[in-house]
Amino acid sequence: MTLPASRATPRLSDIATQARVSEATASRVLNGKAGVAATTRQRVLAALDVLGYERPVRLRRRSAGLVGLVIPELTNPIFPAFAQIIEQSLAGHGYTPVLCTQMPGGATEDELVEQLEERGVTGIVFLSGLHADTGADPARYARLTSRGVPFVLINGYNERIDAPFVSPDDGAAARMAVRHLAELGHERIGLAVGPARYVPSRRKAEGFVAALGESFGLSRGQAERHVRHTLFSVEGGHAAAATLLDEGCTGIVCGSDLMALGVVRAARQRGLDVPGRLSVVGFDDSQLIAFTDPPLTTVRQPVQAMASAAVGALIEEIRGRAEGSRTPVQHTEFVFQPELVVRGSTGPVPGVTA
Q: For residue range 234-265, what is the model confidence (pLDDT) as tens digits?
């Protein structure tokens, strides 16, 4: 988009105001002069970006290299949320992000990785990739390591892969959702979650089963009968809700916000009010979930912290290889705590006052 003529040339006063610095300081930064703190210089450059001005050529930083970001899809809003923060963080470190999205019938993860390697990427971030699938061969990541490509993996730990991992505490997420519903008087609680072969699904199911045992004294076998493994989608949530509602569940915990929306849709098709007759808890808390009808109670995935940690771990890997460090970078799983966000889709069990 072409800026209006009045905006084509940056106004020093606007930039100084946006950056909260004096015009003299802004001028020193724009003219590439020394004597300005790094944080202040960054604020002035950020002000240029926010106001829609192009940075002067002399101030444009040369890219430190390309970094691939491989994600499953863009239809689930949590993935673009991760991508945006990861790309911003990479750009802040001087790297140019390359977004690679897997679509049905499109390139596979392996094909995307091959294309990234052909372009000489410095590193790769995998989000909810094949590393999370217990049925996938982890040898593909060992081959990537042998070719000297640093990478970091988000959502889905696999002890057979030697790399840094970043995950939310999926088990804790399911437990806090169950406790919330139990405090509202719900005793028949179900779980709608993704396929069992995925690590996040397994962890949520384990946390859910443990929580039913802690709250209601159910045995593992009894609790597992309340778990429905399906697709991570609106349709998957709808399908799981059909059977859980038939079993008399008054509360349903979901493995994603999209699944929760499918559960709400299934309840309404049966004439059941949410939360009057059915309480629903999602997972992720993507940007628009607060504006659904009703606003969705969900367990917030700490996207900002996880994305920043993933980029930090990758940069550490890249620098360690570049410096030829013999001290290995810590290859472990960094686990982040989720947060329950209570909104309008949960309420007391029918016939009970909170």
A: 999 999 999 999 999 999 999 999 999 999 99
150 preceded by a cis bond (ω within 30 of 0): no
- CB-based contacts of 244, cutoff 8 Å, min separation 6: 190, 192, 226, 228, 252
DSSP assigned state of 343:
-
Residue range 34-77, pLDDT digits in tens: 788 877 887 887 788 778 787 776 666 666 789 999 998 888 89
Interior angle at CA 69, CA 171 and CA 74, nearest 5: 70
Question: Does 275 sit behind a cis peptide bond, omega within 30 degrees of 0 on the bond before it?
Answer: yes
Q: Look at residues 204, 146, 212, 150 and name the one whose alpha carbon lies nearest to residue 174.
A: 204
Regarding beta strands 297-300 and 339-341, do their DSSP bridges make them parallel or antiparallel, or are they unpaired? antiparallel
Q: Which long-range contacts (CB under 8 A, 24 or more apart) does 100-104 make?
A: 100/68, 100/69, 100/70, 100/71, 101/71, 101/72, 101/73, 101/74, 102/70, 102/71, 102/72, 102/73, 103/73
Any residues with CB less than 8 A from the CB of 297 and at least 6 apart, and which? Answer: 180, 279, 280, 281, 282, 340, 341, 342, 343, 344, 345, 346
**CA pair distance 44, 132, nearest whole angstrom:** 41
Distance separating alpha carbons of residues 280 and 267, to the nearest angstrom: 10
Cα angle 205-209-214, degrees, rounded to a multiple of 5: 145
Q: pTM of the full predicted structure?
A: 0.82
Rounded-to-integer distance, Cα 17 and Cα 42, Å: 14
Cα distances from 52 to residues 3, 10, 239, in angstroms, run 8, 9, 46
CA distances from 95 to 24, 61, 114, 166, 253 (A): 30, 10, 19, 20, 39
Which of helix, strand or coil describes residue 68? strand
Helix (H, G, I), strand (E, B) or coil at 53: coil
Q: Is 308 helix (H, G, I), strand (E, B) or coil?
A: helix
